[in-house]
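User: Round two. Same drill as before: sequence, then structure, for each protein.

Assistant: Same drill it is. First protein:
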Amino acid sequence: MPAVHATFRSQNHRATRQESKALVVAISALQLAMLFLVWLVALIPMALLALGATVVQALKPAAAKTPAPIDF
């Protein structure tokens, strides 16, 4: 059962080395900030493209918006 032994050793190692709560909170806050920044980096260009497409559609002449006649 090497897996059980390895798990026991890693739990034992964690028990001897305590990280400060302030460090854990700081790292968690940094990770959350990085996640937020990644979302912004991904969403801002898409939002600008959507806004640009909306503006282009609004500026097209009204004649271009009429549908073609249907032939029977």
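Second protein:
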Amino acid sequence: METTIVEHDERMLARLEDDDRVFEVSFDTIEPTDVTLRFVRDGTRVGSIYNDDGTARTMARLTTGRDGTDFIGVEVPKEFVAELLDVASEAGRVPDETALEGYRLRVLRPAR
């Protein structure tokens, strides 16, 4: 699996590529909630990462249609999500660090 998480063209770019999937999103900020991360670009939500019903699966959803109704979904590893959050936080792309810590506790904690 190859990952890229960098500042590019005044935005963050996150990309995950594996034999069976590709996920890529560019965003201005990430807005964490209890169990969801919202990708925001130009004030519009363009996708999210969410925990699939409290299971070990972490899913990414990207809006693909011009009217915002079409989307794709792909499973992304929690390790990728953790790295994405670390880089975005260091770059000042997470407006609410307290919500981010809550998300980390709820979703990225080690399985028991």
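The CA atoms of residues 89 and 97 lie 8 Å apart.

User: Perfect.
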